[in-house]
Design goal:
This protein has 371 residues and is an alpha/beta fold. 36% of the residues lie in helices and 17% in strands.
Length: 371
């Protein structure tokens, strides 16, 4: 029900983790606003829509059809033309208005990334609004700059991304520094680990000091319902946090099979909980599937670890540990020797370099399992 006397806020998120972070934000800072949310297209779009519809937090769900950006070269021309003619801000406003209607109706806007065109437009106009920037997982900790970056390995595409980044339209692959982020209030799990960036304010994400804990617990439980009884009733259990290895390799199944074989060999009497990364679409084939429980992708891993103590936690990439890290736990990271030697898949990312960067960031006690 619309309340004419409340200020209006807009939420632009599209992952389970960012939704959980928004619930925290709402219970800590957001009660004075009536919130609308943009339903952004994702691989779990239907699940996200279901979460938002059953929530009591949103007045309106706004669909977002990104097919309007499919004509990439036409979009690039429009961006360059608006930049040359001094209409960049006007163009950014049109990008937002085409999605939400009248952007003027909102006083506060919540985003979580800088690579989506809509969110980057919001950052470009952040001097006009109270823009709250939540965390985009490990991507937040990637260094951004102004120099040309090889992102896809295709010169024409990388040049286009470079131009768009320098003009402030988007930070593809979180590679370019957007000038107007200085107007945003940023929330991070580890503010001290983000270097070389300036924000209007930089605060710790999920700091419960001023949070309505009772309300937060209730909203989280309502949003992310999952049955823990089978896990809690099992004497021994481990958990595997997966990663989208197709980012690094054209043959990810080779390394996934190695992971499965290692776990099955070393944990013959354990229940195996699998928390798949939202972008991991590969089917994992286990010899004893009755011992395996795959958690819904819409359940943030942090909530699982808050409720269950596992005999061992396995991670397929170290950036995941960074986001999960709290107290010292029995953690292990798989390091794939074959991936370290592989040529980069399409120039998207270098496994060897990314592994080292994230492991150095983690800087905590964790076993490294080389397979």
């Amino acid at each position: 029900m619309c309340n004419l006397f409340m200020k209006k806020g807009l939420v632009c998120i599209h992952t389970a983790k960012s939704y959980a972070d928004f619930i925290w934000y709402y219970c800590t800072y957001g009660h004075d606003y009536e919130w609308d949310i943009v339903l952004e297209p994702t691989i779990s779009n239907e699940e996200q829509a279901r979460l938002y519809r059953k929530s009591e937090l949103f007045n309106k769900i706004i669909p977002y059809d990104t097919s309007i950006w499919d004509h990439k070269y036409l979009l690039l021309i429009r961006c360059i033309w608006s930049y040359i003619t001094g209409r960049r801000r006007k163009f950014a406003r049109k990008v937002i208005d085409d999605v939400v209607g009248d952007y003027n109706q909102y006083e506060r806007v919540i985003i979580y990334n800088d690579y989506q065109f809509l969110e980057a437009a919001i950052i470009m106009l952040s001097a006009e609004k109270d823009v709250i920037w939540l965390e985009d997982g490990g991507a937040d900790y990637k260094k951004r700059g102004k120099k040309f970056c090889k992102i896809t390995g295709k010169l024409s595409s990388d040049l286009a991304f470079f131009v768009l980044g320098r003009m402030g339209y988007t930070s593809i692959a979180n590679s370019y520094l957007l000038k107007n982020e200085k107007n945003c209030c940023k929330f991070s799990t580890f503010p001290e680990k983000i270097e070389g960036r300036k924000f209007k304010e930089h605060k710790k994400l999920n700091d419960m000091s001023d949070t309505n804990i009772e309300e937060y617990s209730r909203l989280i439980k309502d949003a992310f319902q999952f049955d823990l009884s089978k896990i809690k009733n099992n004497k021994k259990s481990i958990i595997l946090f997966t990663a989208p290895l197709n980012v690094f390799s054209m043959k990810p199944m080779v390394y996934i099979d190695e992971t499965i074989r290692y776990i099955e060999k070393n944990h013959r009497d354990c229940l195996i909980l699998v928390k798949k990364h939202p972008r991991d679409q590969v089917e994992y084939i286990w010899k004893e599937p009755e011992r395996v429980v795959e958690v819904d992708k819409n359940v943030p891993g942090e909530l699982i670890l808050d409720n269950i103590k596992f005999d061992k936690e396995y991670y397929m990439f170290p950036s995941t540990i960074l986001m999960m890290y709290g107290q010292k736990r029995n953690t292990a990271i798989f390091k794939y020797q074959g991936l370290c030697k592989e040529k980069v898949a399409g120039g998207v990312a270098s496994y060897k370099e990314d592994f080292k960067r994230w492991f150095d960031y983690y800087q905590a006690e964790a076993e490294v399992i080389e397979i």
